[in-house]
Amino acid sequence: MAGVGTVDSMRTAFGKTFDNDPGFLNTASIGVPPRDAVEELTAAVERWRTGAKIPDYGDHGDIAKQAWARIVGVPAETVALGGSVAQLVGLVASNLPDGARVLVVKQEFTSVAFPFAAQEHRGVKVSEVDGAALASTVDGHDLVAVSVVQSVDGTIADLDALRDAAKATGARVLLDVSQAAGWLPLDLSWADFVVGANYKWLMSPKGASWLAVAPGALDSVTPHNAGWWAGEDPWTSAYGLPLRLAGTARRLDVSPSWFAAVGSAATLPWIASLDMAEVREHCVGLADSVLAGLGLPPRGSAIISLDMPGGAERLTETGVTFSQRAGRIRLAFHLYNTAEDVALVLRALRSE
């Protein structure tokens, strides 16, 4: 848990300064930005107030896209920019053949599951299975869609087993990294589709998501959202036919959300430069310290889920910021959290 210090309400972590209050353990819902990213965003708002240039936002979008590719371990040219995870997953779902069979885990985040379920009118069938049985159930399905880390409780998917099962059966795989990218080391170039949001663990203003499409899968995705930004050079594809799209995954791009692009470009390159094994050690060490303090076994995840009657009220009284999912307390530890946060949680949950 080295690399983090606390001075009054200001915290330094991995070379950046943060202003999160003690007890903020809700990164799984929304992350805290580094102070310099806030300064960049504030300056962008000021430029907007006095007359910004739209091309600037495109540069920011490309910088963020390239950094996200490094974070998840995929080639940058395979990555497309979108507005949300559900929109990008919907693009994959709408391109499935009629009657396709999709496998998801029970209690999967609905931005991953709903886009496929919405294709029922075309005969697309979505089956749910317990996470532990995912790899052994792949056979007979055309696509498996799963979060690398589950939003509801922090469970980490067995990616090695899933990769082997998909290779053996020919099933395609879609992975959502929204609860993993930013704290968990990732090397996902083997997956057919990788999708993730820019906020939460990536600590950027909501409004951008990315979809990596393996080269062998790109031809199977019709760019239903094609617009001017999907061209090789948007400034030469802004008017008139014929259709002229980029030859890479950029053909799936939508135009960037301005301030999401600025914030992402300020934060993601720094995250991409970190030793993610060190970040994981820090985050998981804090989460497992809470579990140990409560007499529970370690889980090896930055997200923990607790079933403790009355615990939510005690955490709130102690000043802990958290979320509740599926009737349980959800705590999420990121690089700006410290042992002080662990102590606050244990003070609340150990009280009689």
Report on the architecture of this protein.
This protein has 352 residues and is an alpha/beta fold. It has two domains: 4-37 and 275-349, Aspartate Aminotransferase, domain 1 (Alpha-Beta Complex), CATH 3.90.1150.10; 50-272, 3-Layer(aba) Sandwich (Aspartate Aminotransferase, domain 2), CATH 3.40.640. The chain is built from ten helices and 13 strands. The chain has a seven-stranded mixed sheet with strand order 4-10-9-8-7-5-6, with helices on both faces. Helix 1 runs antiparallel to helix 7 and helix 8 (276-293) runs parallel beside helix 10 (339-349). The longest helix has 19 residues, at 54-72. Residues 95-294 form the Aminotransferase class V domain. Pfam families: Aminotran_5 (PF00266).
Describe the structure using short key phrases.
about 350 residues, alpha/beta, Aspartate Aminotransferase, domain 2, seven-stranded mixed β-sheet, three-stranded antiparallel β-sheet, about 35% helix, lyase activity, Aminotrans_V_dom, lyase, PyrdxlP-dep_Trfase_major, PyrdxlP-dep_Trfase
Strand content: 15-25%
In helices, the fraction of residues equals 25-40%
What order do the SSEs take from the amino end to the carboxyl end, as H and E? EEEHHEHEHEEHEEEHHHEHEEH
- Name of the top-level CATH class of the largest domain: Alpha Beta
Count of DSSP strands: 13
Give the helix/strand class. alpha/beta
From the spread of the alpha carbons, the general shape counts as: globular
Number of helices, counting only DSSP H or I runs of 4 residues or more: 10
What is the fold-level CATH name, i.e. the topology of the largest domain?
Aspartate Aminotransferase, domain 2
CATH architecture of the largest domain: 3-Layer(aba) Sandwich
The fourth-level CATH homologous superfamily of the largest domain is: Type I PLP-dependent aspartate aminotransferase-like (Major domain)
Q: Can you tell me the number of structural domains? A: 2
In this structure, how is the largest beta sheet organized?
Answer: 7 strands, mixed
Low-confidence stretches are: none
**Rg, Å, rounded:** 21 Å
Domain Aminotransferase class V: 95-294
Protein name: Selenocysteine lyase/cysteine desulfurase
InterPro entries: Aminotrans_V_dom, PyrdxlP-dep_Trfase, PyrdxlP-dep_Trfase_major, PyrdxlP-dep_Trfase_small
GO molecular function: lyase activity
